[in-house]
Amino acid sequence: MQQPKATSAEARKYAINCLILLTMTLLVAWFFYGERVIRLVLTGTLSAFFADFLLRMLAKKGRVKPDLYSIVIGATIALMLPATAPYYLPVLGSLFAICVVKLPFGGLMHVPFVPAAAGFSFLTVCFPSAVFHYPKPIPMQGGADYVADTALSALLRSGRASYEDAQTFMDILIGHIPSAMGTGCTILFLAGLLYFLFRKPSSVIAPLGFLLACAAMAFFFPRIQAERLTSVILELAAGSVLFAAVFFLTDPSGLPKTNGMRLAFGVLAGVLTMLFRRYGLYEETVCFAILMANAAWPAVEVVLKRLERTIQKWRGLPRKVEVAVHE
Amino acid sequence: MSENTKKAPSFREMLKRSALIQNPVLVQLVGLCPVVPAAVSLQSATLFAGMYLLMLLVTEVLASLLLRKLPRYIRVCIYLVVGLGMVLPMITYLEQYDQTILARIGIYFPLLAINSITALHCEKVAVKSSVAIAAKDALATGIGYAAVLLLVGALRELFGNGTLWGRAVLPQAMPRMSAMLLPFGGFLMLGLLAAVLRWILHKKYPEQTKQANLHVSRTQVKLREVPLPLAERLEKQQAQVAQAQTEEAQTPEVYDPQGALPPEVTAAEEAAKPVSGPAQTPPPEEKRTDPLQADMDAITQEFQALMRELEENYPGKDPDSQ
Question: What distance in Å separates residue B181's CA from the closest CA in chain A?
Fold first, then answer.
């Protein structure tokens, strides 16, 4: 039985909030990696928008409204790629996200998976060498051409805690290290979470659970030989953890309805992310973890609801029952 | 019209039904094992397709000729033995003359012997029909399966390696999607082909594909606080409705190979029919099992009564609007 996971008004509001944050992310990425960032993001965005618009027009055989969420998908996928990515990467990722994940399931309000995460996962599996070929930021290398270097996520995977160039914590927090175009600036994403907190507090619950779970796993099971607090900061700053927390886990279509379940979903995604990081094949695995959390969530939700009912029954409280009304 | 005078379907009709409308891989979703992991090149797909077509033909003809009187559990074992009897000599031949392709096809080639399509078609068609119909069904189904194998193998080799039958086709500058050679790529390819086939069938044969349509009902979920006894009754009703729906979905479809396609009535035959008395009513459609239908109706009525009680006595607010 499929049910709408968000209303169209909620979806539009969410898309506008995301576009504001993505614009900030794009400006920071442009500063660090030059104008190629703009071209890549435009390519991804336009591919996603036109693919979504044309396919919906063909399916409905008439005029349709443009969907802002398709722009969010295209921009998100492009910003998770390195600045050296070829132009076909954001195009293929956007087409996969729209044509295979978003539209066949009925659009934003019914998708069981985060489309941008699925698009990036597709690119990771198909073109791993292109997706993980990170360049140094331009202010760091002092030249026009991109120079390849190791990302923080790869360093942590190999057990090292610092760069040979001895970058400070501040460099890592502002994104002055080799990374994907839009995922390096940690401070920006913390500001993004604060922005969502003021705009819609309930949307921050899942990211909070996600980050707490990642931090706890990094604290108790560090991958590097360093202080535990250093491990927590580096694990949260590395890769796309914060980017995913802001742009994937605030998505109303992919989240459960109640706050408790959202927190549980975030925790599940966080645990899976850290497990994938430790045992997975690729250095960037957040998207796979979120997709797996989306897939596993219905089964986990059944168990949690039974637990909730048992606790309420034991406490003798009036229970909330989900009553399905067919439209 | 009596059973004896019913016209046996032609090979063309059976091919249309078995290979297209009821394609075993893209519509019925059976026999995925060799297609997803093993059909990664046109060469391996051709080997699988040829071998399976032959295996299905021999097994169905044998089942129709000799195995009707045997119990079902013995028949299924014999299908396996027949399949292995055909696959093992082929493996021995490949071991001697072409080790490269043997390394590529791996464990999936012997697994053809236990392909679910063999047992499905032998039990549904071969043991209930004449040898001629069994042979036609085997050929029609085998051709449908082979077509999917060849298409998937060719596309995966083209997009994954840029080659066809080992020869470079795409220019070097074009990107290669290595994921196409993984099972992930196989599932993706199957999904896309199934979508394309469904679109074609909707256009060309809308009546036959109507039954396969899934109706997705959109529901609105509201949370209301209700006392425990009413909540338990509501949940019990919901569970009963869900169970009744599951049982209905699992009711086996009666397969009639001779009644698969409606016979074409020409204008001359239509004009030659005598007009006398009231028009004959068409035979009634197959109804669902009566007890199941009665159960579902009773459960639905009780559920609706509970819903009305809930609406009247406990008008709740939507917590999402707060």
Answer: 10
b/e burial code for range A106-131 (CB count within 10 A of at least 16 → b): ebbbbbebbbbbbbbbbbbbbbbebb
Alpha-carbon torsion A138, A140, A143, A149, what sign?
A: negative
Residue with tokens 């509201």: B222
Amino acid at A77: I
Contact assignment for A1 to B224 by CB distance below 8 Å = no
The amino acid at A277: R
pTM score of the predicted model: 0.76
Res. A2: pLDDT tops 90: no
Minimum CA–CA partner of B161 in chain A: A126
Determine the pLDDT at residue B214: 45
Single out the residue of B154, B178, B43, B166 nearest to residue B105, CA to CA: B43
Residue A84 in this model has a pLDDT that exceeds 50: yes
Tell me which of B248 and A271 has the higher pLDDT.
A271
Is the ipTM higher than 0.90? The answer is no
Amino acid at A267: V
| Beta bridge mates, B226 | A319
Q: Which of A84-93, B140-149, B177-186 has the lowest mean pLDDT?
A: B177-186
| Whole-number percent of chain B with pLDDT over 90 | 29
What's the rounded Cα separation, in Å, for the pair B266 and B235? 55
B318 touches chain A (CB under 8 A): no
Longest CA span, chain A = 69
What is the 3-state secondary structure of A73-115? HHHHHHHCCCCCCCCHHHHHHHHHHHHHHHHHHCCHHHCCCCH
- The alpha carbon dihedral of B249, B251, B255, B256 has a sign of negative
**Which residues are paired to B219 by β-bridges?**
A326
Distance (Å) of CA B140 to CA A94, B30, B152: 39, 15, 19
